Amino acid sequence: MVEERAYWLAWSQISGIGPVLLQRLQQHFGTLAVAWKAHQTELGEVEGFGLQTLEKVIKQRSGLHPEQLLIKHQEENPYFWTPADVDYPRLLLETPSPPPVLYYRGEVDLSENLGQKPLVSIVGTRKPTEYGIRWTRQISTALAKNNFTVVSGMAEGIDTECHFAAMKAGGRTLAVLGTGVDVIYPHKNRDLYKQILTSGLVLSEYTAKTPPHPTHFPRRNRIIAGLTRAVLVMEAPIKSGALITAQYANEFGRDVYALPGRLDDQPSQGCLKLLYHGATPILRELDELLKMLGAIPQLDVMETIPQQLPLPSLSAELEQVMNAISSESLPFDFIIQQTGMNAGSVSSALLQLELMGLISQLPGMRYQRC
Length: 370
Prior knowledge:
- By secondary structure, the chain is an alpha/beta fold.
- It has 18 helices and twelve strands.
- The chain has three domains: 2-76, DNA polymerase, domain 1 (Orthogonal Bundle); 102-294, Rossmann fold, CATH 3.40.50.450; 308-369, Orthogonal Bundle (Arc Repressor Mutant, subunit A).
């Protein structure tokens, strides 16, 4: 496990090799340690490894020694997980692009990582109205008092409000940063940052001392969506990073909720767009929201222990659908998108897999592995 951890770190240092290619490498070779020693011809068999990428790998790989790199890296970045670590957040690991290295500071709660405690993200505009602030505080407080962990990005506005409200209610909150975990941005949130560290967690895919950069924040939004089972968008104009988070949530099969607003309110236009495209409205009765969020199936403890259970012989079509389904419940539309098959073929395959006892259907046309 320690060896594989070093290779996740080493591969992440090679330019042009991102989370998606790393996933393909692992799937193709079984481990990244084996991939590291693979010949150029073998690497070329992996989808996405064109001539330029191969040249970068061969050139940069020769100058890196994974075990030594790990030791040196830990001097400035003592706390981090890789997908080789059993403590790596399980929900995030099931997304198509989990960070190869996830840094953290604060108090770790493994029940969150193992999917046993519900995490809900709250996102929105940096310039909320009084209406958005009021409902963000109410909802964050209700979530905290009902044992939900609130996740956001520690930005100004809605993010700041939900972090503070959750902690004030005695709950726990996680902040996903677009900087290194030791860099406070915006600086005015330094007190918030310190308070989160005392009872919550700060996370980032960027190394220590990494300053803010415009490209970092859209990318970190996939982590906010991937860590949680549902995304709540409180207020968002039509061009908002919160909508990027909601888009990732849809791609990952997460539930998306939006706070309704007036048609002529600019900060509500993004939420109205989400509602038009099928997001669940957040209504006045918060008990109903809590009930819906609490009904999202939780991961079983046994699911956190990898088990190599033999599968019966499946046809190519059934195997394709089976590979698209994980231990987390996924909506029918997401499975269609993952397989690239038509709805009729997917529906037929799901029925056969269910009859074979390999998957189960949940309310709302959602499916998961048994």
